Structure formats: structure tokens, C-alpha cells
């Protein structure tokens, strides 16, 4: 359990804390500015999410820089990312802030690519993250933050950045998933008999 893996585990442990602040039924005070309104618990959840999301790059950087790449880290890092994004997106559906179909599309792609990665590992192949995979992560995090903070500051401009960011995240997520399967179709052998 080296430093990089501890950071990854910390990211996993932050997931239930974020969900607690998003889904707690206690009445928190609101901050109101004209038509914009946000609760303190949403602000806390958004800050924790930003911290958790930023550790994704940090643990990978530390692992590579200090030569601390381990099999445990290879397993935990993508798991932590998927838990974080999935938990927050499901919470946002519960809060009525994002359409369920967008979340289903994103989660389905994540688990489909995870399955493909597992098959590749069994074949002794490591699937590297593509530029579209990285763009997907950035788009998802941007959309989630916009949704968590109630489209601030775009509410004042009457511009639905959070909705557009959600659609962009869904489109890039699907595209990057298709790209993974096209580039790695050799991993799946359909000729094998059960």
C-alpha cells in the first residue's frame, strides 16, 4: 500500500461522503442571488468532488514518477474513477438534475470498456487510455461540476451550460467507447465455441 494507492483509496472513501451531502434530507440553508440558489451541502459536495477528481491525475503521476506502479493500483485506479462518477451521477438523477438516460449511457459505456479491458488483460494486452478516453473524463467531470453547482455562473446569463455539458459528456463517452471497441476488436474472438 504505497502513497499512490493510498491516494486512490482516499478517493474511494470520499464517495460515500459526497453522496451523504447530496442525498441527506436535512434542510440546509440556501445561498440566493437573484434567480440563482444553491444549498451549502451542494457546495460542500462539489468541493469534495473536485478534490476527489483531482486526485486521479495525482496518484497516476506519483506512481509513474516514483516507480510505484502496482497491480493493486492498476485495479483500484479505474475502479475508484468509476465509483466516483457513477455515485455522483446516480445522486444527481435522484436530485432531478440530470436525465436518467444520460447516466445510463455513461455507466453502460464505462462497464463495457471495463469488460473489454479485463478480456484484454486475460490475453496479456494492456489497453492504454486514448485521447478520447481522456476527453471523456474531462467532459464528465465538467458536466458533473456544472450540475453540482446549479449551473453557476451561467444561470445569470440564462445559458444552459449544465445541460449542454451533460449532452457533450454523453456524446464523447459514447464515441470514446466505440473507439475502444473498434481499435481493440482483435481482443474479442467471436470464433471461439462455448
Q: What would you say this structure looks like, in words?
A:
The chain is mainly alpha-helical and 194 residues long. The protein has helices at 3-23, 40-65, 71-94, 100-122, 131-148, 161-183, and strands spanning 30-33, 36-39. Strands 1-2 form a two-stranded antiparallel sheet. Strand 1 (30-33) and strand 2 form a beta hairpin. The longest helix has 26 residues, at 40-65. The termini are far apart. The model has no long low-confidence stretch (mean pLDDT 89).
Q: Report the portion of residues in β strands.
A: under 5%
Query: How many extended strands?
Result: 2
Mean pLDDT: 89
Structural class of the helix and strand makeup? mainly alpha
Largest sheet, described in full? 2 strands, antiparallel
Rg calc? 18 Å
Q: Give the neighbour order of strands across the main sheet.
A: 1-2
Report the uncertain regions.
Answer: none
Features:
single chain, CDP-diacylglycerol-glycerol-3-phosphate 3-phosphatidyltransferase activity, lipid metabolism, about 190 residues, two-stranded antiparallel ribbon, globular, about 70% helix, mainly alpha, Phosphatidylglycerol_P_synth
Summarize the structure in short.
This protein is mostly helical. It has helices at about 5-25, 40-65, 70-95, 100-120, 130-150, 160-185, and strands spanning about 30-35, 35-40. The chain has a two-stranded antiparallel sheet.
Amino acid at each position: 500500500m504505497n502513497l499512490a494507492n493510498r491516494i486512490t483509496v482516499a478517493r474511494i472513501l470520499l464517495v460515500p461522503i459526497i453522496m451523504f451531502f447530496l442525498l441527506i434530507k436535512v434542510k440546509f440553508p440556501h445561498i440566493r442571488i437573484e434567480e440563482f440558489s444553491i444549498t451549502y451541502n451542494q457546495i460542500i459536495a462539489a468541493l469534495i468532488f473536485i478534490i476527489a477528481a483531482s486526485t486521479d491525475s495525482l496518484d497516476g503521476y506519483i506512481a509513474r514518477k516514483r516507480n510505484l506502479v502496482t497491480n493493486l493500483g492498476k485495479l483500484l485506479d479505474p475502479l475508484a474513477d468509476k465509483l466516483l462518477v457513477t455515485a455522483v451521477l446516480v445522486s444527481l438523477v435522484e436530485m432531478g438534475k440530470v436525465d436518467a438516460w444520460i447516466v445510463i449511457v455513461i455507466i453502460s459505456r464505462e462497464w463495457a470498456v471495463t469488460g473489454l479491458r479485463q478480456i484484454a488483460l486475460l490475453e496479456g494486452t494492456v489497453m492504454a487510455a486514448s485521447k478520447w478516453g481522456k476527453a471523456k473524463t474531462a467532459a464528465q467531470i465538467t458536466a458533473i461540476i456544472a450540475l453540482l453547482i446549479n449551473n453557476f455562473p451561467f444561470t445569470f446569463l440564462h445559458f444552459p451550460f449544465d445541460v449542454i455539458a451533460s449532452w457533450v459528456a454523453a456524446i464523447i463517452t459514447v464515441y470514446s467507447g466505440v473507439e475502444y471497441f473498434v481499435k481493440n476488436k482483435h481482443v474479442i474472438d467471436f470464433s471461439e465455441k462455448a
